[in-house]
Amino acid sequence: MSGIGKIFFEDVHAGATLYRMQGSPLITIRPAEDADMDAVTAIYAHHVLYGLASFETEPPDATDMRRRRADVVAKGLPYLVATDDDAVLGYAYAGGYRPRAAYANTVENSVYVRPDATRRRIGQRLLVALIDACEACGLRQMVAVVGDSANLASIRLHEKLGFRRVGVLTNVGYKQGRWLDSMLLQRELGLGAQTPPERR
Asked: What angle do the packed helices 152-160 and 122-136 form, to 10 degrees?
């Protein structure tokens, strides 16, 4: 497991990781289920309408979000939710970085937190669990594409967990009346480039 000073234990049978920070309620990180997707849809819709992390401008409906999750899971990639007493606080998933075959061992991460659940380290817990799940799958590289280079909270979170800045695409998006950059960060997973990949 990636170490971030957390107190945790893993429930192998349920496929969930349970996190308890000092003085915090129990947060469960587990694979997303179909029943979670209405809450996931609402979380994403907020970020599409009011945030700059996503470059979508129209929120997808629950049917589309369910299809997107099914596509991720069908590729053997993780799609996780963070819950507190069965309320979904955030979600994270790994998607294919590019469709060409040579990119099969590289993924792009996405992490979104419910707006009223910020400042509880939910995003950090989700990203740690996502990194661990991707390493368990034998993946070798993770790329973060951070919408808006001024999104320092997301950039600092990724850097805290071992990502390094590898580039900026300037003014590639236009949303909410202004041009936006994309910040690219990258992190090795597992053995990185030390050996040939298991996934071909």
From this structure: 50
pLDDT tens digits along 9-41: 344 334 566 655 445 568 999 999 999 999 999
Give the start-to-end residue ranges of the domains of the chain. 7-188
Say which residues have a Cβ less than 8 Å from residue 24's Cβ, sequence separation at least 6: 120
**Inter-CA distances, 25 with 22, 28, 30, 88, 190, Å:** 9, 10, 16, 14, 30
How many other C-beta atoms are found inside a 10 Å radius of the C-beta of residue 11?
11
Q: How far apart are CA 134 and CA 198, in angstroms?
A: 13
Superfamily designation of domain 7-188: Gcn5-related N-acetyltransferase (GNAT) (3.40.630.30)
